[in-house]
Design a protein that fits this description.
about 350 residues; TIM Barrel; 8-stranded parallel beta sheet; two-stranded antiparallel sheet; 13 helices
Length: about 350
């Protein structure tokens, strides 16, 4: 059974019979895990194995593991700093900042791959305009060149760990005050100004570093009347044509309040897929997820199937072997020493 175009969540530490039935529907292509799905390494290993066993090829398994306040698994995983802290290091020691970003990507990716998880929705490449609290310290920096450099280093680390980088939130979430989880933000800047937010994507795509991009739920009113995740302009004209991106495009969670005015959940999913998204996320709303999955029983996009198939992780080793390796021990010590350095307080 090929991967479908819907990624959804599950409620707890184990799969329920209802979870199993839904995940076996042809329209489903992936599962995103949250903190509520993690109580420890043994439990996570069993849950991932359960999900893997449901289908062939297996469903994609993803998690948000950027570091800082967006890291779903902390106990028994390396706790990474916010990316802003690494950005602050850039002005003090460029080489150290780049190494820290690459190490953060590798640590995150290798520890997740050791648990057989395919994807982390990272790096966040929004600019730190100092406006949006929902982004805030998740952003590396306010300078697009710095963000491009650090996001590239982070992506190299993820790829070295066997994980496909997924950059977000295209074309940029940092310049609006509203949080799209709560309402629909409108960015009224001219196209030339929004190009600053796109510059990190240009670098990442040009260097062939990212395999996926997640769209924002924001209207850029001077450019298009639709939110980016529903916009043929942003997906086809900008991302695909101008930037030359050939990877998978994700529409951010359709359960966010920013999308409420665009119809039922099946209608929103159809808008996103017709605009050019390869996969839509529906989280924390099981009835809506079921409705979308039912509505997409017959949907298939051959190009999307190819793009999504490339997202499975590679190079998995056991957690015991990883933690025993000199590379992991050196990387973990680097972050402990760096975060304990007294001068860091002056830069945070």
């Amino acid at each position: 059974m090929a991967l479908g175009s819907v990624m959804l969540d599950i409620e707890g530490f184990v799969l329920t019979p209802a979870d199993r039935a839904l995940l076996c529907e042809p329209a489903v292509g992936g599962v995103i895990l949250f903190s509520r799905n993690y109580s420890g390494l043994s439990q996570l290993n069993n849950l991932v194995s359960e999900i893997r066993a449901l289908r062939s090829p297996p469903l994609l398994i993803a998690v948000d593991h950027e570091g800082g306040r967006v890291q779903r698994f902390c106990d028994s995983f390396t706790v990474l700093p916010s990316m802003r802290k690494i950005g602050h290091e850039y002005g003090r020691d460029l080489g150290e900042a780049l190494l820290l970003a690459k190490t953060a990507g590798w640590l995150s990716g290798s520890e997740l791959r050791a648990m057989d998880i395919d994807l982390s929705f990272a790096p966040c490449v929004d600019l730190d305009w100092g406006i949006n609290d929902a982004i805030g310290d998740r952003a590396f920096h306010e300078d697009p060149e710095v963000v491009g450099d650090l996001a590239s280093a982070f992506s190299h680390g993820l790829r070295n760990a066997g994980m496909a980088p997924i950059a977000k939130h295209f074309p940029g979430h940092g310049a609006v005050a509203a949080d799209s989880h709560e309402r629909l933000p409108i960015d009224r800047r001219e196209y030339g100004d929004v190009l600053d937010d796109i510059r990190p994507y240009d670098k990442l795509i040009g260097n062939g570093l990212i395999v996926g991009v997640m769209l924002s739920h924001i209207i850029y009113s001077e450019i298009d009347v639709l939110p980016a995740g529903f916009s043929r302009y942003w997906i086809q004209s900008e991302l695909r044509s101008r930037l030359g991106f050939g990877g998978a495009v994700f529409c951010d969670d359709l359960n966010m309040k920013a999308t409420e005015s665009y119809g039922t959940m099946p209608t929103r999913a159809k808008l996103a897929l017709e605009a050019g998204c390869d996969m839509v996320l529906i989280c924390n709303n099981r009835p809506a997820a079921q409705a979308v999955v039912s509505s997409l029983k017959e949907y298939s996009n051959p190009l999307s199937l190819v793009r999504l198939a490339r997202l499975h992780g590679s190079g998995q080793i056991s957690r015991e072997s990883l933690l025993a390796s000199e590379k992991w021990q050196s990387a973990a010590k680097r972050f402990i020493d760096w975060q304990n350095r007294p001068s860091l307080e002056l830069n945070s």
